[in-house]
Amino acid sequence: MAVLVTGGAGYIGSFTVLQLLLADYQVVVIDNLYNSSVEALERVKFLAGSKAKNFLAFYENDIRDKQGLEKIFAEQTIDSIIHFAALKAVGESSVIPLDYYSVNVNGTIELLQAAKKSDTCRSIVFSSSATVYGDATRIPGMIPIPENCPLDPTNPYGRTKFFIEQIIADHVNAERNAGKPWNAAILRYFNPVGAHPSGILGEDPQGVPLNLLPILGNVAVGKIEKLSVFGNDYPSKDGTPIRDYIHVIDLAKGHIAAVNYMKEHSDTPIKYWNLGTGKGSTVFDIIHAFSKTVGRDLPYEIKGRRAGDVLDLTADPSLANKELNWKTELTLQDACEDLWRWVSNNPDGYRKPYPASLNPQ
Ligand code: NAD
Ligand code: WQD
């Protein structure tokens, strides 16, 4: 029995595949490499050492390709899915919303249809996002954000996640009513950051980076002249917005905990868990932490607010802490140091293979 990881060559997917292999899960990956490279999977196998034998197959395939999916489910015995594959750029989602609905929503429906047809797979762990909460500060008492905070996504990307959460719940309920004990874990991530401490696995988006720490990484290696700080007039301690930055390795481990939980609780139809640290950091906290790691002040300039940004997205992760027996272990400083090792060792991302003779830590 294997776990099918969609989007497994991507940033969070590759770290999760590594954790799955290390935890002795057999893994099958599907990815169309739209925003990733197969080199990431080579490095995952390298880091997994002898456990790379648990990596069964990689399929370069679109999740909307019905025939491709059916072939994978026929060739492999899949018993659960971790579903990462998606388009994820918030701004772009307002420009090409139909593409976002096509990949994210239609892709999930095709995936569920193929899984249903296979009849071996009855569990899905889904990559949702804190963005489904929208501006939680609109409701008093909702910071840190608990899972029962009312959902109010404010952009097409967030709405794809919101709709998919409901589609998955409807599917699970229908299957259970038909006597097939499907279950699902909806994981709402806060801001994933960092890289592997070996410096050989990290985030390598196609095109320009859009998120704060990857941009700072590019400033540090001279690829971007300076960071634009989007607003310093928010009601926070230093005027910049607050986010909950979670190390990608802690996040990946949260997926293993969720897969284990769903296996052990086939009586539980659906669970919703926030994966975050519970600790908020401002943009200036991040600039200072990363500048300290790099050993010099990184240039920035204050610009106007970015449309759609909210003051505070800090998780209340206590439900996941308790039920999954999972909590974050790595710090923001760990994330900065790991990111720095990644960007300085791989200024061109995965485009140059890492020499296999170098031992990871
Ligand atoms: P990523 O872009 O690195 O990974 C997504 C992967 O999906 C990529 O490898 C891409 O090639 C693949 N993919 C895209 N469209 C596909 C398709 N049609 N068929 C098959 N594969 C396809 O992104 P990530 O940061 O690793 O995010 C993974 C998941 O987590 C996404 O669902 C994202 O929405 C969600 N998420 C990410 C963040 C974040 O800040 N990184 C936060 C919350 C939620
Ligand atoms: C973080 C902070 C910016 C860039 C996004 C998605 C969210 C989730 C995680 C997928 C904010 C500030 C940023 C810059 C800046 N992804 N910033 N200058 O917006 O919190 O969350 O990624 O689900 O849905 O919206 O992350 O890294 O873009 O921004 O000042 O050049 O950094 O204003 O306060 P965000 P981010």
From TrEMBL:
The keyword Cell division does not apply. It catalyses: UDP-alpha-D-glucose = UDP-alpha-D-galactose. Gene3D superfamilies: NAD(P)-binding Rossmann-like Domain, UDP-galactose 4-epimerase, domain 1. GO terms for biological process: galactose metabolic process. It holds the Pfam family GDP_Man_Dehyd. Residues 4-338 form the NAD(P)-binding domain. One of its GO terms (cellular component) is cytosol. Its cofactor is NAD(+). The keyword Protease does not apply. It comes from the Eukaryota. InterPro entries: NAD(P)-bd_dom (IPR016040), NAD(P)-bd_dom_sf (IPR036291), UDP_G4E (IPR005886). Its EC number is 5.1.3.2. Transmembrane segments: none annotated. SUPFAM superfamilies: NAD(P)-binding Rossmann-fold domains (SSF51735). Mutarotase converts alpha-aldose to the beta-anomer. It is active on D-glucose, L-arabinose, D-xylose, D-galactose, maltose and lactose. Homodimer. In the N-terminal section; belongs to the NAD(P)-dependent epimerase/dehydratase family. This is UDP-glucose 4-epimerase.
